[in-house]
Amino acid sequence: MIDARVKFRHLQTFVEVARQKSVMKAAELLHVSQPAVTKTIRELEEVLGVAVFEREGRGIRITRYGEVFLRHAGAALTALRQGLDSVSQERSGDGPPIRIGALPTVSTRIMPRAMALFLKEETGARIKIVTGENAVLLEQLRVGDLDLVVGRLAAPDKMTGFSFEHLYSEQVVFAVRAGHPLLSGRQSIFAHLGDYPVLMPTRASIIRPFVERFLIANGIASLPKQIETVSDSFGRAFVRSSDAIWIISTGVVATDIDDGLLATLPIDTSETKGPVGLTMRADAIPSLPLAILMQTIREAAGVAMPKG
Fold first, then answer.
1. How does strand 97-102 pair with strand 126-131?
2. From CA 191, how far away is CA 202, in angstroms rounded?
3. What SS3 class is residue 158?
4. How far, in Å, CA of 238 to CA of 235, rounded?
5. For residue 23, what pLDDT is reported?
6. How many CA atoms lie within 13 A of 31 on its CB side?
7. Least enclosed by CB within 10 Å: which of 82, 114, 128, 278?
8. What is the fold, at CATH topology level, of the domain defined by 172-272?
9. How confident is the model over 173-225, as pLDDT tens digits?
């Protein structure tokens, strides 16, 4: 039986604090005071009989009980949003919204073709595509802000409550401008890697551990001219106008390489290969338009990046 003391504001506040990992940031986004957020969380903890957050240094972190409740709270908010959207759909004649999170590599190479195929189905569904880091997208999926994430398979502890369908495997490449000095073969690539600016995935990026292990295995402990970025537009512009080296998933730069604007250094990076696929909440049942979009993503991935 549902405890009548649990209100919508309890779920909304709890999910936002969990998402932001900050009472202050949650209060700003919810347009309420910090004391109001704190009071709401305390009311929820009183109903549940357990603490859902605990202090960690100057911040807070979610407890084990909070993690359990978050999965259900996020699903409840998602169901409510879908109900509201359904009513709105009936009144306006619009299709149900579909919210997709995609890694930059997926947004560049897979989603354009998938969307072209999807639009031919004329479902009338409204689409929202968000690009970002894998960890951020998965957190948005967990709390119900996204319906599907197309990205790399996360670590086992990050996949609790999710289901994953493998589409293809992708590896990291070292991309440079056409005519880069290291393409001549006259210099040892790893011996001179530190001579050039190197664009690295950020520490929150899912491919960062693969890249770090690969560099260490090849004798590179640090890079003096390192720039961390997840911006493919900056990476593309900076590498094309300089001697910088961009360590990035191959799908992000595949078109640039095909067009001859960028090239890859002759390095065997096969050990950085990792699975890319569809991630959903395990308890979610896709709507018909979402199921159709998932199928067009499968078809687009099969054409652009065959399994391997």
1. parallel
2. 23
3. helix
4. 5
5. 92
6. 0
7. 128
8. D-Maltodextrin-Binding Protein; domain 2 (3.40.190)
9. 999 999 999 998 777 899 899 899 999 998 878 888 889 999 999 998 889 89
Look at residues 293, 302, 308, 303 and name the one whose alpha carbon lies nearest to residue 102: 293
Give the pLDDT confidence score for residue 1 in this predicted structure.
Answer: 46
Strands (E), 171-308: 172-177, 198-200, 226-228, 245-249, 262-264, 274-281
Rounded to whole angstroms, the Cα distance separating 296 from 302 reads: 10
Q: Which one of 3.90.226.10, 3.40.50.150, 3.30.565.10, 3.40.190.10 gives the CATH number of domain 95-169+274-304?
A: 3.40.190.10
The residue to which tokens 């960028």 are assigned: 262
pLDDT of residue 155: 84
Whole-Å CA distances, 263 to 104, 108, 174, 254, 267 = 19, 17, 8, 9, 12
Return contacts of 192-195, CB within 8 angstroms, 24+ apart: 193/220, 193/223, 193/245, 194/220, 194/222, 194/223, 194/224, 194/225
Q: How far apart are CA 135 and CA 250, in angstroms?
A: 19
Rounded to whole angstroms, the Cα distance separating 271 from 88 reads 48
Low-confidence ranges of the chain (pLDDT < 50): 1, 90, 306-308
Dig out the tokens for 93 from the structure: 């004649």
Q: What is the pLDDT of residue 95?
A: 57
Q: Which fold has domain 8-69?
A: Arc Repressor Mutant, subunit A (1.10.10)
Q: CA 236, 237, 239 angle in degrees (round to 5)?
A: 70
The strand pairing partners of 126, in sequence order, are 97
Q: How far apart are the first and last CA of the chain?
A: 48
pTM of the model: 0.64
